[in-house]
Amino acid sequence: MRFSFTLDATDGAARTGRIDTPRGAIRTPAFMPVGTAATVKAMLPEQVAETGADILLGNTYHLMLRPGAERVARLGGLHRFMNWDRPILTDSGGFQVMSLADLRKLTEEGVTFRSHVDGSKHVLTPERSMEIQRLLGSDIVMCFDECPALPATEERVAEAMRLSMRWAERSREAFGDRPGHALFGIQQGGVTRALREESAEALKSIGFEGYAIGGLAVGEGQEAMFGVLDYAPAMLPEDRPRYLMGVGKPDDILGAVKRGVDMMDCVLPTRSGRTGQAWTRRGQVNLRNARHAEDPRPLDEGCTCPACRGYSRAYLHHVVRAGEMIAGMLLTAHNLQYYQDLMAGMRGAIAEGRFAAFEADFHALRAEGDIERL
Ligand SMILES: [Zn+2]
């Protein structure tokens, strides 16, 4: 069975469809929970699947340093290692080398750096990134790219984009012929339309199974991001999935889907779940807040997650304040459920041609804010 993408319906620029892989289908628009170090923190894989997630994201940078790609391969690959049999997408390591590693040295060949874990020296090139992602057994592999730290001059953004396009060609070459697995190219170019166009043309001439929009959600703000998303998705092939990397808050996700994005990932629902923050249909709720201390109501009575089915706001408040592990477990489960429910809601709305009404309801309920205090 090969990797394929089927577009089922569109509503304006918004799209819904399905990616088929030998490890199962991915319904789009799809949100990918982040399983950085071979775990979605505080969640069992079966719980992640129960929320409706069809695919997880794994981080090449973290896994190459610990436990190491060769070790994961000897233990049967990442799916078996972490007990997740559905599709996995891995990033290329490029972004995290630039944001986490020490003593980086960037050349045409690749990046030399020291591990933030133990100081050991490593080299990441397009070829090595492809090898690591193959050893992990990733279903969707990302090209090795350079994302310049912002703020950066347009000249610097252009230089990084052109290097990334040369690396995309080397990534394609090194990936080889692997039926059932996909390689995605990554569009760069910051917030400059001409650079985005140049990048899209370079990627299309190489040819990929899917295309990512990179270099956004790096501090430019929602307005600037939506400004790029007003034109960038349409520069990419209509018959291939489009993946917006590292996004985002629920309203970012809705705005991206509205503009033609099919896939997204973000640490936000899991990370904020570990700091007492919940995302609901009525916006963000801080469970540390004293107003919840004697509130017997669930976080969201319309939610089917374990936290909302079995526990009160008062209990969640207590375990967050007490620093109990179950706080992170319950709030992560809730946040991932909310994100997947949002994706399912958007897929249904696009299929039925009522995305605009869905969007209006989404904003209206959030504008009301959290339920009245008791
Ligand atoms: Zn819930």
Automatic annotation (TrEMBL):
Example of a GO MF term: tRNA-guanosine(34) queuine transglycosylase activity
Pathway per the UniProt entry: tRNA modification; tRNA-queuosine biosynthesis
Annotated protein name in UniProt: Queuine tRNA-ribosyltransferase
Alphabetic keyword roster: Glycosyltransferase, Metal-binding, Queuosine biosynthesis, Transferase, tRNA processing, Zinc
Domain of life: Bacteria
Domain called tRNA-guanine(15) transglycosylase-like: residue spans: 13-364
Catalytic residues of the enzyme: D91 (proton acceptor), D265 (nucleophile)
Cofactor: Zn(2+)
GO biological process: tRNA queuosine(34) biosynthetic process
Binding site for substrate: D91, S92, G93, G94, F95, D145, Q188, G215
Gene Ontology cellular component list: cytosol
Matches recorded under InterPro entries: ArchSynthase1/Queuine_TRR (IPR050076), TGT (IPR004803), TGT-like_sf (IPR036511), tRNA_ribo_trans-like (IPR002616)
NCBIfam families: Q_tRNA_tgt, tgt_general
Its job: Catalyzes the base-exchange of a guanine (G) residue with the queuine precursor 7-aminomethyl-7-deazaguanine (PreQ1) at position 34 (anticodon wobble position) in tRNAs with GU(N) anticodons (tRNA-Asp, -Asn, -His and -Tyr). Catalysis occurs through a double-displacement mechanism. The nucleophile active site attacks the C1' of nucleotide 34 to detach the guanine base from the RNA, forming a covalent enzyme-RNA intermediate. The proton acceptor active site deprotonates the incoming PreQ1, allowing a nucleophilic attack on the C1' of the ribose to form the product.
Catalytic activity: 7-aminomethyl-7-carbaguanine + guanosine(34) in tRNA = 7-aminomethyl-7-carbaguanosine(34) in tRNA + guanine
Quaternary data: Homodimer. Within each dimer, one monomer is responsible for RNA recognition and catalysis, while the other monomer binds to the replacement base PreQ1.
UniProt remark on cofactor binding: Binds 1 zinc ion per subunit.
Residues that hold Zn(2+) according to the record: C303, C305, C308, H334
Gene that produces this protein: tgt
